[in-house]
Design goal:
The protein is of the alpha+beta class and about 725 residues long. It has 18 helices and 37 strands. The strands form 10 sheets. Strands 13, 14, 15, 20, 25, 26, 33, 36 and 37 form a 9-stranded mixed beta sheet that branches. It has a 6-stranded mixed beta sheet with strand order 3-2-1-4-11-12. Strand 7 and strand 8 form a beta hairpin. The longest helix is centred in the N-terminal third of the chain and has 32 residues.
């Protein structure tokens, strides 16, 4: 019986789906329009569509559930939590903190965002929780976790009842120094469960057991804010997957180690009850489902849906993280272990750096205006996607983005009521993309694009061709600036890295990016629009644990106890995911700084026993990494001591990754399938190549256009694209 794993990545414009046959390794890809009003609709349609395609069904009638019984696991990349934060859809959120610290959110940090040269012109945005919905509770711990004043149970009860009486059902709790001792926060949660059982509660010692009270408070509150939304969404998907699978049990283990339906049902049984705002009981929704269902996390790992509803903040960069990991595997297989990844979608472009096969991680990220100090792949996002709107500033200069036309109504050429020119319209007008998307499923209105471009050209006094080319040039520079942020600002030379371009709009501007940035080459994988969905199937189960321990004289015994506790938490989580003890992998790391510095540098820490050799190795890695990042270090200067700040453990459950097969060699100079007028520097007939017909070794010379289902590569004059043995197009100048 066939066993298929499915990855579903929901984007702003399209939902991308990949299915991998676990017996044959065959990969099937497809796309379907996203459904912003209810992302679950596009999710389910994508699952049905990829199963029909994998089964060879040409006619959708009566074949909606073909092959559902063969699905062994579903992995999902979602933007639900991200969109809620970006759109500031946060309401009725409560906050409990230490007595005397009720204005921690007002004080925040002294830094002023880029773009405000004078702080007098910057007005702090509204706090995530207004001061009138903040309650304080007596009790105090010092920085070592020792109790200075006992927890005030009476005030805690009063706070819980205050929220209950006002219908505030999402509550974050952050007490001073709870990273060192969680006792007071745990007692506050017990009070809330007893006095206000309908509340959804997040406590900081669970979300982020790390010092810096402001960031820890906001991270905890963000987690509480998105919990109800994520629970509704995950429960809805679990119910619909169960209905689609006709109550069948899981076809088999989703991961090495035996994670299957049993582990999923048992772990989801601990989900909190439904809230009065309509939040479903996730346990009830999923208890009957035998299909393992996992969600991508920002840290480059996945977690079962039953577990992720308890830590929804970890999903805020779900889709982009999967794209970076999928691109890293594709590039490494083709012999490029260190690359820049560029994921171009309809709304935005996400860029990341992969060094020696591993994307860079950070804990200094933010979503919108909210700092989120959770481990996440270091991704820079810029509003430069296919749907980015071209507009004229008050000074009369043309601009592109960051506002997007999205999927509905979308660009002018979609014919759905869009009224503004977008990047996609410019490509259509210049003939660089075909007059349809998804192999003809979505016809494009080229006349509407032309009329929009001509109207905009009249306003700025340029020809329509120069206007459209200018829109694309601005978009290319927007993307290049994002790439510089992730490379030059981190001490990396962009010219040392090939780039992997994917996503529906990712390959469209690669020739200009090669010239602007001096890139050695750009790799465009097969089915580039589905790389993020493919990446979902390449990802291990992963949970991160941290403990702040600030000291200049690290006690190896204490460090061993902390690492042991963190690894114990990681082991318990992997057990719940169904991994056998022998399959567990633990990755240690530590955050260090020179004494007197305000921020740390993270370095990997060796496994094994903690001894003086272990300490020396970590310190050596710190000095090396600090010098690489900042250009200086104090390795041999005893006046500058090193301070240990955080100890970390990642618990990893490895999976079997899909294999990327080699392609047979064929005609090195293939004939085009058609030609059409395309504008590069001037109008001219350009050969059109169908990418599935290109064998390994084939070389295309620009000007040309290479088309495939879901994406297009316009090849400018002076550039070549060569198909490697894994089916990637390698684009170079000359």
């Amino acid at each position: 019986m066939r066993s298929v794993r499915i990855g579903v990545d929901t984007g702003g414009t399209f939902t991308d789906v990949v299915a991998v046959d676990e017996q044959t390794g065959e990969i099937t890809t497809t796309k379907t329009p996203s459904t912003p009003a209810n992302p679950a609709d596009g999710f389910m349609e994508g699952v049905r569509k990829v199963l029909r395609k994998a089964a060879g069904a040409e006619d959708a009638d009566g074949a909606a559930d073909v092959g559902m019984d063969a699905v062994s696991a579903v992995v999902h990349g979602t933007t639900v939590a991200t969109n809620q934060l970006l759109e500031d859809r946060i309401a009725d959120l409560g906050f409990v903190t230490t007595e005397g610290f009720e204005f921690i959110l007002e004080i925040a940090r002294q830094s002023v965002p880029d773009g405000y040269g004078n702080s007098y012109f910057w007005v702090k945005p509204p706090r995530i929780v207004p001061v009138h919905r903040i309650r304080t509770v007596g009790g105090r711990l010092d920085h070592t976790g020792a109790e200075v004043r006992p927890f005030d149970e009476e005030q805690a009860v009063a706070a819980a009842r205050w929220f209950r009486d006002r219908g505030v059902t999402a509550i974050g709790v952050c007490f001073l120094h709870s990273y060192a001792n969680p006792a007071h926060e745990l007692r506050m949660r017990e009070v809330l469960e007893r006095e206000h059982p309908d509340a959804v509660v997040s406590i900081s010692c669970d979300v982020l057991r790390e010092y810096r009270e402001y960031e820890r408070s906001v991270t905890t509150l963000v987690d509480a804010a998105v919990k109800p939304t994520m629970r509704r969404y995950i429960a809805n998907l679990a119910e619909r997957l169960e209905a689609a699978s006709r109550a069948q049990d899981a076809a088999g283990p989703a991961y090495e180690g035996g994670s299957g339906g049993r582990a999923y049902r048992e772990s989801v049984a601990g989900a909190e009850p439904s809230a009065p705002d309509g939040t479903p009981d996730v346990a009830r929704a999923a208890r009957g489902s035998g299909m393992p269902f996992s969600v991508m996390k920002s840290n480059g790992g996945v977690l079962s849906a039953a577990e992720v509803v308890h830590q929804p903040i970890t999903t805020v960069l779900s889709g982009p993280a999967a794209g970076a990991l999928g691109a890293a595997l594709i590039a490494a297989t083709a012999g490029h272990p260190s690359v820049i990844t560029l994921d171009g979608g309809g709304t935005s472009t996400d860029v990341a750096v992969v060094v020696d096969g591993e994307p860079s991680l950070t804990t200094e990220g933010s979503i919108g205006r909210y700092p989120c100090k959770i481990p996440m792949i270091d991704i820079v996002t810029v509003g430069a996607g296919g749907g980015s709107v071209a507009w004229i500033s008050p000074e009369g200069t043309p601009k592109v983005g960051p506002r997007s036309a999205g999927a509905d109504p979308g660009p002018l050429c979609y014919g759905r009521g869009g009224t503004e020119v977008t990047v996609t319209d410019a490509h259509v007008f210049l003939g660089r993309v075909p007059p349809h998307l998804l192999g003809g499923e979505i016809p494009l209105d080229a006349d509407a694009a032309r009329e929009g471009i001509e109207a905009l050209a009249g306003k700025i006094g340029l020809s329509p061709e120069r206007t459209a080319a200018g829109i694309l040039e601005i978009s290319a520079f927007n993307q290049s600036n994002a790439i510089r942020q992730i490379t030059v600002k981190r001490g990396l030379d962009v010219r040392d890295f090939p780039m992997v371009a994917f996503g529906g709009s990712g390959p469209l501007l690669v020739c200009r990016l090669i010239d602007i940035l001096g890139l050695p080459s750009v790799i465009v994988p097969p089915d580039p629009g589905n790389v993020s969905a493919f990446g979902l199937l390449t990802v291990d189960v992963k949970n991160d644990y941290v403990r702040t321990f600030v000291t200049r004289d690290l006690s190896l015994e204490t460090a061993g106890e902390i690492f042991g506790d963190l690894e114990g938490q990681a082991a318990a989580a992997l057990d719940r995911e169904g991994f056998a003890t022998g399959a567990h992998v633990y990755a240690r790391s530590a955050d260090l700084r020179y004494y007197g510095q305000a921020y740390e540098v993270r370095v990997p820490a060796p496994s094994g026993p903690l001894d003086e050799d272990w300490r020396a190795e970590v310190l050596d890695r710190f000095h090396t990494e600090h010098h690489k990042l900042y250009g200086y270090g104090y390795r041999d200067d005893p006046r500058h001591g090193v301070e240990w700040v955080n100890l970390r453990v990642s618990g990893i459950g490895p999976i079997t990754r899909p294999a990327i097969g080699r392609r047979p060699h064929g005609d090195p100079s293939p004939e085009p399938v058609a030609s059409r007028d395309v504008f590069y520097d001037e109008w001219g007939a350009a050969p059109i190549h169908h990418r599935p017909g290109l064998a390994a070794g084939a070389t295309i010379t620009g000007p040309a256009v290479i088309e495939e289902y879901g994406s297009t590569l316009p090849l400018h004059p002076g550039f070549t694209a060569t198909v490697d043995e894994f089916g990637n197009l390698e684009v170079r100048r000359g």
